[in-house]
Write a structure and sequence with these properties.
It is a single chain. Strand 3 and strand 4 form a beta hairpin. A twelve-stranded mixed β-sheet has the order 1-2-3-4-5-12-6-11-10-9-8-7, with helices on both faces. By secondary structure, it is an alpha+beta fold. It folds into two domains: about 110 residues; about 150 residues, Gcn5-related N-acetyltransferase (GNAT) (Aminopeptidase, 3-Layer(aba) Sandwich), CATH 3.40.630.30.
Length: about 280
């Protein structure tokens, strides 16, 4: 019942476990796949692994992503697993946030006796690559798709900050330009990013935000207000899915429960409900 600390890449059993739990675990899969580990939690993270049963990614700043806790169905055993996890992570470890399948997040909070300050619920939606839709026609003859290079981050920074205000930041928080730039630069270096331009002006963006073993998680979908409800996001989404289809990779994303326009878009593309998803914030 004891958890094993994994602070170095290359643990095949852990790799298989997180791959088997995609799409719930794409964010963790990417970290395991790319070897984003750092035992001291400075730039990377580490995993606690209960062989064959559960895993928890622990990232810098108190970020946690649990996988598979909900599958421990025996109540007595589950209590022991959670106590063991608390010992493994350290008595004085502080929570900042927990992200993942809603039931796993709830159980992780039990391990820490944590009461979140803010909880945001989503639906995790998924689409298998053979069922991807065909690429739409551009909704305007002067729209173009660009795959930006990392050196072009300045063209996209305003879009990144606007997206963070609408979809990422908690109430009362404002974007930090340096943090936004770092996040954008990382995305341009490591992810699939497509932008739509109109007469050289960037008007919309879609991107992956995690690339797991079997599939990609899509995020950062944003269109400037004056171009909404005109089919731009759908056009970009079908183009991004075409990229993933060529690689035979599945797609997933999570969407807020009250985001009706986005939910209608993803449903029209063929995405189906996979599981309840949650992010809980503690600090």
């Amino acid at each position: 019942m004891e958890w094993k600390l994994v602070a170095r890449p290359g643990v095949t059993a852990l790799e298989r476990f997180v791959a088997d739990h995609e799409p719930d675990a794409v964010a963790v899969s990417e970290r395991v796949r790319r070897g984003l580990f750092d035992k001291r939690l400075r730039s990377g993270g580490r995993c606690y692994y209960l062989p064959g049963e559960a895993a928890v990614y622990h990232g810098p700043g108190g970020f946690f992503a649990p996988i598979g806790l909900r599958e421990v169905t025996d109540t007595v055993r589950l209590d022991g697993v959670l106590r063991s996890l608390r010992r493994a992570t350290g008595t004085f470890t502080r929570l900042h946030s927990i992200m993942g399948n809603r039931h796993d997040v709830e159980l992780m909070a039990r391990a820490f006796d944590g009461v979140p300050r803010i909880t945001i619920d989503y639906d995790l939606l998924a689409l298998k690559w053979p069922a991807f839709p065909q690429v739409d026609r551009p909704p305007h003859p002067e729209l173009r798709i660009v795959r930006p290079r990392p050196s072009q981050w300045r063209r996209l920074l305003h879009l990144q900050m606007a997206y963070e205000v609408e979809e990422v930041l908690l109430p009362g928080h404002r974007p930090n330009p340096s943090s936004s730039r770092a996040s954008l630069a990382h995305s341009l270096e490591t992810q699939h990013v497509l932008v739509a331009t109109y007469r050289d002006e960037v008007v919309a963006r879609v991107a992956t935000n995690a690339r797991g073993f079997l599939g990609d998680q899509i995020g950062g979908v944003y269109t400037v207000p004056e171009w909404r409800q005109r089919g731009v996001s759908r056009w970009l989404m079908t183009s991004l899915l075409a990229d993933l289809r060529r690689e035979e990779r599945h797609a997933s994303l999570f969407v807020k429960l009250d985001n009706t326009p986005a939910r209608e878009l993803y449903r029209s593309l063929g995405f189906v409900f996979e599981s309840p998803f949650r992010i809980s914030y503690y600090q």
